[in-house]
Design goal:
This protein is mostly helical. The chain is built from 17 helices and no strands. The two termini are 34 Å apart.
Length: 471
């Protein structure tokens, strides 16, 4: 089919009478709740996995825990590329469905599968070529390097399951099937959690594999989730067709995906840089550095139970906003953003309450000693003040991506973490009081919220108010 015939087909599809997707007709409040709840649950399962996995590995020895921890930034970069690419596919595909251009939506889905495979091959090369250099640049402890290499060669070298699982989840989310997406992510996480102790410690007929067992458990969980996601997209997701027979990559689709995806990738990657720099700042406190770095690590694991549900909420609302943008339904779009902001703020306020009332109990999950409690309790209470401002900013950031303005989200993320938070932490550390460093988090979130409101007003004036209201 040539270009003229394809355009003719797309135009015919856009005018043919078809059944409206639920994202264009279901009451907005019910729609946001029904699409986001499964994603929030799956994100909570993922947060639980992150903590359980760390607890099992730490039982081997401290070097094993450190080695796996040092592998995290590179793993996080893999996830960032997978998720960012998925966000680009998600937004473009949902918008194409809203415009009733179904062949175009199919092409975005197929390009998503293609780019997931390409991303894996790129990281396979990175893993094989740079793993030794990567660990030796961070530590000179032979045992830590050995454990880290064991883990990363498996988790990175066989990460095809991670990229394919993420992409197939995004395809399900793009058409509103977030419950099915929850099943794929939940299956992978549960298999990982179950296999962790079995393979690490050699339970039953399985050999004791140590750190390598943790990596194998991760890879097996991801591959199972990916295969289940492919099955669901083929058999249950009838609004798209991912049959790759005769597929040829097209530059315009790749550009459209990464126009939205690259800012998302950068945003997700910045967190690793910020964490690394904060650890360097905390290292300046001499004898307290290990305790303070442990507090920071504990905070990031604990805050995932608060932020992950908000990210799940965003995953559910991005296709709703994109769909109604493409369908020209301004009222539904605006109402989705407002309801999402209300939900996100409620979750963050609950997180604030928990960290203000139960900081010691939370830290004791990681067997915190007296010194860690001494510095950790005020740290959690100070950092959690930032939750007041974070919810709305996160929702607005996702809305920018859905409306085709991902650069705004990227600017805010980089400014919050690298331009404001890290310099503020550096300057506050000069006071000599570790407690002061944690105030950099609320300071950064206030900036983030202010910038988000500014950009939202600008986008409302330039984009949203010009969208027709085809109710």
């Amino acid at each position: 089919m040539n270009t003229a015939e394809l355009e003719k087909t797309e135009n015919a599809e856009s005018t043919a009478p078809v059944k409206e997707n639920k994202m264009g007709v279901l009451p907005v409040g019910k729609l946001v709740f029904s699409m986001s709840l499964p994603m929030m649950v799956s994100m909570l399962v993922q947060a639980l996995y992150n903590i359980v996995d760390s607890l099992f590995v730490s039982q081997i020895n401290q070097n094993a825990f450190t080695g796996v921890s040092l592998a995290f930034p590179l793993q996080n970069l893999m996830i960032a590329v997978g998720v960012g690419t998925g966000v680009g596919v998600n937004a473009n595909l949902a918008r194409a469905l809203g415009e009733k251009k179904f062949e175009k939506a199919n092409k975005f889905a197929r390009h998503g599968i293609f780019l997931a495979v390409c991303s894996y091959l790129a990281f396979l090369a990175v893993t094989l070529c740079f793993t030794k250099v990567y660990f030796r640049a961070q530590t000179d402890v032979a045992a830590t390097i050995r454990y880290g290499e064991q883990y990363l060669y498996i988790a990175g070298g066989l990460s095809v399951g991670s990229f394919m699982q993420i992409m197939n989840e995004r395809l399900l989310q793009s058409t509103g099937k977030t419950v099915l997406s929850m099943f794929t992510q939940g299956l992978g996480a549960v298999i990982n959690i179950v296999l962790d102790p079995i393979l690490i410690f050699g339970i039953g007929p399985f050999p004791k594999m140590g750190v390598a067992g943790a990596a194998v458990a991760t890879v097996v969980g991801q591959i199972c989730g990916a295969l289940f996601g492919i099955y669901l997209n083929v058999t249950r997701n009838h609004e798209i067709n991912i049959n790759m027979r005769g597929f040829r990559p097209e530059e315009k689709f790749v550009k459209s995906i990464y126009a939205i995806g690259v800012p998302s990738i950068i945003m997700a990657s910045v967190t690793s840089v910020m964490t690394f720099l904060l650890n360097l700042i905390l290292a300046g406190f001499g004898a307290l550095k290990d305790t303070l770095q442990s507090v920071l690590g504990a905070y990031f694991k604990l805050q995932s139970f608060i932020f992950m549900p908000v990210f799940g909420l965003n995953n559910g609302t991005v296709p709703i906003i994109s769909y109604n943008y493409g369908a020209g339904k301004r009222t539904r779009l605006v109402k989705t953003i407002k309801i999402s902001a209300l939900f996100a703020t409620s979750i963050m306020l609950l997180g604030l309450l928990l960290m203000q009332v139960f900081p010691a109990q939370m830290l004791e999950i990681f067997k915190a000693n007296g010194e860690m409690l001494r510095w950790g309790v005020p740290a959690l209470r100070i950092i959690s003040v930032s939750f007041i401002f974070a919810g709305v900013a996160i929702v607005f950031s996702s809305a920018f991506q859905s409306l085709g303005h991902p650069i705004n989200s990227m600017i805010i993320s980089i400014a919050r973490q690298l331009v404001v938070l890290v310099p503020a932490a550096f300057l506050l550390a000069k006071t000599g009081n570790p407690d002061m460093v944690w105030w950099s988090f609320p300071i950064a979130e206030i900036m983030s919220l202010s910038a988000s409101i500014f950009f939202m007003i600008k986008i409302h004036r330039e984009v949203i108010r010009h969208i027709p209201d085809n109710e």
